[in-house]
Amino acid sequence: MQKRLLFNSKLLQITISRLCQHLIENHGDFSDSVILGMQPRGIYLAERIRKRLEEMLNTKIQLGYLDTTFHRDDFRRRESPKTPNQTKVPFIIEDKKVILIDDVLFTGRSVRAALDAMTMFGRPAKVELLVLIDRMYTRHIPVEANYVGRRVNTMTSQRVLVELEEQGKKDNIWLINETE
Question: What domain of life does the native source organism fall in (predicted)?
Answer without folding.
Answer: Bacteria
